[in-house]
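Quality-control log, excerpt.
Job 1 of 2 completed; input and output follow.
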Amino acid sequence: MFTSFVFFGNLNSVLGNGSSLLSSYVLELGQSLFLGKLYCRNKNFEKIYDEKILRIDDFGVLTALKEGNTKVAFQNKISNTKTTINISVIPKKNIRFFLVDNEEYDVISRLNVYVTTPCDTNITKIKLLLDKVNKNEFITDKKFEDSGVFVWNVYLDNLPENEYRMKIFVLKDDLWVESGIYGLRAVKNSDRFFAPKDISAGGVRFIMGHEGFSSRIYFDIVDVATIGYGKVIYPGEVFYNEIPRIEAFILLKDHVNKFVSRKINDFLMKNNIICTQNQFDALVSFSYNVGTNWINSDVKIINTILDTKKINTDFKKVNVETFLNVREKASTDSNVILKLHNNEIVRVVDIFENWTKIEKDGIIGFCSNKFLVPLYNLGNINIEEFSKWFLSYHHAGNKCVLGLLMRRTKELDIFYKCKY
């Protein structure tokens, strides 16, 4: 049984991810708050009550310089209204970023855990403590410096399928200090072709190569605030305005899997469509670049995808509200040998009038036909129609952009040919 690993800690609880301004914020020393261009130094900004604690730049970014409490005031010149925001600056936390990464979905021999810490702290070791396993303590003193942060890499081996709570400790001034609690889920990977997916390592590298990298906030071709590998920064969002590539990679992968991969998975599973990893990666890269609104609004692409007529006859999906009994023989009087949950995938061995003989994890039995639904293979899509509508997304600011057209072409290469 293969396993894959999914991190479900809340990165945004550390960074903040707002779309509007609040009346108060807490920033770590060195963190920034994006107010938006409307509130930059040259527009509507009035004053910082203590400029030793905060500074503001021409892009509307506040940066914490010193611990303490202060206020920022703005005067809207159009509505003639005044806004005041309370800011508290606290000491740097021990951990900046955290990521669990498994690049090979079908390999369980090694799981990479990345932790970044500020360089100007006396941290000499990192310890991970997991529940539910015998060997539950993982310690490392190995780190490297990258643009003002230390990057720690810890390896976890052969975790059984389960959900875990992981505590992170740092050895600081010869004392172990608990510095975060995160969730980790090891999930069965035997149905990877059908199961919800994360973007692959190849998919992440493709996006990184096309987005380009910036360690600091900038405004892109359509005037959207961006950092790292194309990560959008929204007004009201707390962030680090000086990040190395490893933290930009963590931001990218976390954002893609939480907000893009999830929507692609929901769309495909809702419509009983199966796909390969490369097809999934192409749709995720496309959606990361143009947004996911096409899932709800672009009727032409949706209909082309849903018009995948050819049914995959080798597998079916369970469609029940609670669970489905798998019986030893094709009879309701026969012994129940397995219970299946909604959306689980089974291999079809044979089909009878009211029953289907199925195989699941090496167990062979019988299920009622009415609780099994067919699956559609994305590989049978109409190539000409799909390519035409897919390639039409090459505009920015109402202008044709050659770079976007080239990116769409390369995404189609990934989709059809697994060529990254």
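Job 2 of 2 completed; input and output follow.
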Amino acid sequence: MTISRCLQVAGLAAVGATVLCAAGAFAYASIPDAGGTIHGCYDKAIGQLRVIDTASNDPISGKCLSTETAITWSQTGPQGPKGDPGTPGTPGAAGQKGDKGDKGDKGDAGPAGTPNVVAFHWPATGIFQTDPETIVTEGNLTGNDYVVEAKIDITPHGSDDDNIHGSCSLVYEPHGSGGNIFSEVADTTSFGMTSSDQGLSITLLGEVPLGGFGSYAVQCSRAANTDNYDAQQISVVRTLLA
């Protein structure tokens, strides 16, 4: 039974029947519908709006008339756009200083450092005698033990010096010795050549234990009854032992 029919019956029946009929009409209304949408009809002639129940089969309360325009609206509106970010708040006060952390583990040992290396260079030295002649010397070293490498270029002294024989030695004077004795020999090399040779190079390499204070030298000499020669270039590299 529709609402309009109930109103007609109410004009003829008792007040109790009117109330009962109205109660029955509203008991089956589905407004809004299951999707939350409210349906209505707008009368185009008089501008009146009424709400209908689309779940009803009644031709009046369940749908719009030809003189009406159907409209819908949601009981809950659609979600609005996201608002702009708010103004940043005032920074808070600094927190209290934390407790001191535990002592960390000991780190790994670092790589070995570069050894103490010192390089020297001497110009040409010529005409060696039969007695050893000191051509390089470094004294009063305050280190301990060294490795010394000396390189010497040997050339004939003159064009007629054809029979050349000699030797060069790396010698040192350890701590406690006096004067230029150089009684200890770290390395020695003998050589021979003729005037047709362009020259030769020799290398002396040895450990020089000075005991904390001492000197070392490079000495060269020529054999008896042989011709003169020149030491054209002399270079020395000294490395402090750990």
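Post-run check on job 2. The longest strand covers residues 145-156.
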